[in-house]
Specification:
alpha/beta, five-stranded mixed sheet, five-stranded antiparallel sheet, 16% strand
């Protein structure tokens, strides 16, 4: 269809033509990573995730790609397309669509990918298929093919079914209609790879039950549900594959309409999650609980992460997370989850309801998303998932623990990957102790501050030497290896520290308190030293020198 037809099918508050030709043909939609432009399929609407409209170079490259592929570029802008971007579009001969910034990319992706796909090639609906609601569609299909029809979403909820007289029925259909869900005994046959990886109509057989024809309902690459037709036996199954395939395309439009309402609900849940994470005691009980909270922290190719205050890198870090939002929504929905997502202090938090029917596990989704984000967005992500939370007020404590886990992984130079908070429990407890020492002066002996002040004033490094020595239980050889110093240098520093600060290292209580105090002081480093440390840890030489560690394995 043409871009103009596509825009007419969408609401004007969603997308508008900002520059170029509305007669451009649109055959699909592609996600365009603003950080790494690659060749794409011709005649597509290119969704420019994370594109910085103030960067003439980035905008120019995206516009040229849209023009060269005879497609159109979709960008998010609050108050209309900036004048300089319009001029660049005209110069490049590119068509640009302005998208409301409050609309999730996943919502636009689903709509645009489905509308062209659901238009029959002739431009006319398949003969005999009625529009109306999903129940009318189910009855139309049942009347044509002679089977009993049911339509499910990806949560295996039966959203519509045919109710014509004399239809075949077995125990699966009877229980399914009564409960409006696919029965547990039928789930293995409804979730087979043979069906969900196929774009064609499949015959599903089960001993003791009626045979069925089934087809997945898709919006582009995203699965929205499935359509099933049950027959008394295989001998009466008609040649109705084309009818079922066309009906699946019509059903996709209906299911997307349902998802529009879900998107409105999601905005409400996002606001509730934001409140729960920042203001415990004011959480909304409407949140999908029990559920698991995930924390995502992005790192750009320049080595920026949350909390990095180097000029320009904070914007890169946030852009990396924003690019991940749309991809995460698409992945979660296609795998049976309805995510609630919000950004707080440049980290992304995702609430996933615990094990909805017909979905993969949270750990599987987290690992799958990390792999996809690494490949498609070229963003190094740390993903940490918490244990299931039962009550809204427990979300803030879980968030604090996930933040501590992320901080530990960053400080220990962990590889990007998907981690479980339970595997980092000891490290989270340690971070809690550090937080307590920082917050309460009565828990400090004062030695840590004195040592840090001396290092700052004299350019020495007693704090790091003592901390490594204590963490390695007084093993000078291990400390020297960790610090890349000669053993005699470490011994000399420890001896001198005893003389300067009066440290009683033979006392186990003093050693414990000093280690906590020196460890807690890590966040008080100057921005200059923090920048140097991070630059070193992400240099090519440092990366090459890292010990081999299986991705996703937490450092200890």
């Amino acid at each position: 269809m043409t871009l103009g037809t596509l825009l007419d099918a969408l609401r004007p508050d969603l997308v508008q033509l900002a520059a170029g030709d509305a007669h451009v043909a649109v055959g699909g939609v592609e996600l365009l990573d603003g950080g790494a432009l690659e060749p794409v399929v011709p005649r597509c609407l290119l969704l420019a995730l994370g594109l910085d409209l103030s960067s003439a170079t980035a905008v120019g490259a995206a516009l040229r790609l849209a023009a060269e592929t005879n497609g159109a570029l979709a960008v998010k802008c609050a108050n209309g397309l900036p004048g300089q971007v319009i001029e660049q579009a005209r110069a490049a001969g590119a068509t640009v669509v302005a998208v409301n910034p409050d609309i999730p990319w996943s919502r636009l992706y689903g709509l645009v990918s489905t509308l062209p796909a659901t238009r029959p090639a002739t431009g006319e609906p398949v003969s005999g298929l009625a529009g109306g609601d999903l129940f009318s569609l189910a009855n139309s299909v049942a009347a044509i093919c002679g089977g009993a029809v049911a339509i499910m979403d990806t949560d295996q909820t039966i959203v519509a079914y045919s109710n014509l007289p004399g239809q075949p029925i077995d125990e699966t259909r009877r229980v399914g209609i009564l409960s409006r869900r696919v029965p547990d005994h039928a789930l293995p046959h409804h979730l087979t790879d043979e069906l969900w990886r196929s774009d064609s109509v499949r015959l599903i057989r089960r001993d003791g039950y009626h045979p069925r024809l089934a087809v997945v309902i898709r919006a582009g690459d995203t699965a929205l549900g499935s359509l099933w037709a049950a027959f008394p036996d295989e001998d009466v199954i008609t040649d109705c594959a084309a009818v079922l395939a066309a009906a699946a395309k019509l059903a996709a439009l209906h299911l997307l309409t349902i998802r529009r309402h879900l998107d409105a609900d999601q905005e409400s849940r996002t606001a509730a999650l934001h409140t729960a994470l920042r203001h415990p005691g004011h959480a909304d009980r409407a949140l999908p609980l029990p559920g698991s909270l995930l924390c995502l922290d992005a790192e750009t190719e320049t080595g920026a992460g949350a909390g990095d205050d180097r000029p320009g890198l904070l914007a890169d870090h946030r852009a990396g997370l924003l690019r991940a939002v749309g991809l995460l929504e698409l992945d979660a929905r296609s795998l049976g989850h309805e995510p609630t997502i919000c950004l707080v202090k440049d980290r992304m938090y995702v609430l996933l309801q615990a094990a909805p029917r017909g979905s993969v596990t949270v750990s599987t989704l987290a690992a799958h998303f990390h792999q996809r984000a690494t490949r498609l967005l070229r963003t190094d992500l740390l993903v940490v998932r918490g244990e299931p939370v039962e009550e809204p007020d427990g979300l803030r404590q879980t968030r604090d623990d996930l933040d501590r886990a992320i901080s530990h992984l960053r400080e220990s130079d962990a590889r990007p990957g998907s981690y479980a908070a339970r595997d980092l429990h000891a490290e989270i407890v340690q971070q809690r102790l550090f937080d307590a020492v920082r917050a309460d002066p009565m828990l400090r002996t004062g030695l840590g501050h004195v040592i840090a002040a001396h290092d700052l004033a004299h350019g020495t490094d007693y704090r790091a030497t003592l901390l490594s020595y204590l963490r390695n239980f007084g093993d000078v050889r291990a400390a020297s290896t960790e610090l890349t110093l000669h053993e005699n240098t470490v011994r000399k520093r420890i001896r001198r520290a005893r003389e300067l600060f009066g440290i009683a290292l033979e006392n186990p209580t003093h050693r414990l308190l000093l280690e906590l105090e020196l460890g807690a002081n890590v966040t008080y480093r100057s921005s200059r030293s923090r920048s140097r440390s991070r630059s070193r840890s992400h240099s090519p030489a440092r990366r090459a020198a890292r010990p081999s560690r299986e991705r996703g394995t937490p450092p200890r």
